[in-house]
């Protein structure tokens, strides 16, 4: 495929996926487990046919090696889904997840005993500052939201208690996002070791990382069934020829298909372009998704949020070496 087409599909697929996700989460903030299960099931079915060929293809990486990654991967999804329940806005979640290099660097130093350039530490400092600014600003907005949109008691003590409870729940959402970031970093270290031993097999890994966790959703079955019922009760949308489908199921179908387009396009891009180009495209895509979320859904975003966002993305580009600062980058060896 032409790289330009792959890049176009990355932006179309990934940005559209964010729009469908926000529609779903806006209507049902606690529906994350149903969304995740549906995505896992779809990717598993596709991989079963095209990659595993109904388990007739012997995996290049032994299945026992996947179980550690699968546990990490499943817990990351559950932690991210929990953040939706605690009213953490999607723009703030995007900014938080852009800080994935922070735990990666920390674990790299502590576990792998790696040494990083000054530019890496500067980038982490910028990202940390950016996330801190956005988080503090969002916390102030959260308190304002509770005062304006909730019927609070006239008793000052009761009002303060209600505000405190809501702020604690919102903070728990941030804690879940932080846990997910560290779990993702741990999974990355484990993947690095496994890929170093057996080689990289992204399509196979994509399939088994989604297929093997499916039994884990048994523990979430009651929550998933509850949201299936809620989705069934949403406004029917006519599909023509006398058929109709509840609105939320259409949004879910759109979310699943666009996620698949996004993942496949990124995979194609990695085979057609350099790692630096892929990183730049993915970073720009995240920024475009953030812009869409802010303006399309009218999510509150102040000037301080913009300052934090700019610091975060500058840090990301510096960490991934899209941006170079003379004197901070390690000198490349010459032949």
Protein model, in words:
The protein has 335 residues and is mainly α. Helix content is 74%, strand content 3%. The protein is built from 12 helices and 2 strands; from the N terminus they run αααααααααββααα. It has helices at 3-27, 32-50, 63-85, 90-97, 101-110, 118-149, 156-198, 202-211, 221-232, 247-272, 275-296, 303-319; strands at 236-240, 243-246. The chain has a two-stranded antiparallel ribbon with strand order 1-2. Helix 1 (3-27) packs parallel to helix 11 (275-296) and helix 4 runs antiparallel to helix 11 (275-296).
Spatial strand arrangement across the major sheet: 1-2
**Which oligomeric form is depicted?**
single chain
Largest sheet: 2 strands, antiparallel
- Which spans of ≥5 residues are poorly predicted at pLDDT below 50? none
Structural class: mainly alpha
Give a quick set of tags describing it:
single chain, 335 residues
């Amino acid at each position: 495929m032409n790289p330009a087409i792959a890049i176009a599909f990355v932006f179309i697929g990934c940005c559209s996926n964010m729009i469908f996700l926000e529609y779903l989460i806006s209507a049902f903030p606690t529906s994350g487990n149903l969304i995740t299960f549906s995505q896992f099931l779809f990717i598993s079915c596709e991989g079963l046919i095209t990659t595993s060929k109904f388990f007739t293809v012997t995996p290049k990486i032994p299945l026992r090696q996947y179980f550690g990654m699968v546990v990490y991967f499943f817990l990351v999804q559950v932690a991210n889904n929990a953040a939706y329940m605690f009213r953490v806005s999607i723009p703030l979640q995007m900014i938080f997840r852009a800080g994935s290099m922070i735990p990666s660097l920390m674990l790299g130093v502590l576990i792998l005993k790696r040494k990083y350039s000054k530019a890496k530490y500067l980038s982490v400092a910028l990202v940390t500052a950016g996330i801190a600014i956005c988080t503090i600003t969002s916390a102030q907005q959260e308190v304002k939201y509770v005062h304006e949109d909730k019927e609070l008691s006239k008793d000052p003590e009761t009002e303060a208690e209600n505000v405190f409870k809501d702020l604690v729940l919102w903070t728990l959402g941030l804690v879940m996002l932080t846990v997910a970031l560290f779990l993702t970093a741990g999974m990355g270290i484990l993947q690095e070791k496994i890929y170093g031993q057996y080689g990289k097999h992204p399509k196979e890994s994509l399939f088994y990382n989604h297929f093997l966790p499916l039994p884990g959703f048994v523990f979430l079955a009651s929550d998933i069934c509850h949201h299936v019922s809620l989705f069934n009760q949403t406004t029917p949308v006519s599909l023509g020829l006398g058929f109709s489908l509840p609105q939320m199921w259409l949004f879910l179908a759109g979310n699943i298909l666009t996620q698949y387009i996004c993942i496949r396009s990124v995979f194609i891009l990695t085979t057609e372009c350099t790692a630096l180009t892929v990183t730049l495209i993915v970073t720009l895509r995240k920024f475009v998704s953030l812009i869409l979320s802010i303006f399309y859904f009218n999510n509150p975003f102040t000037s301080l949020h913009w300052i934090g966002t700019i610091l975060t993305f500058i840090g990301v580009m510096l960490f991934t070496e899209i941006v170079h600062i003379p004197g901070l980058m390690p000198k490349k060896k010459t032949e």
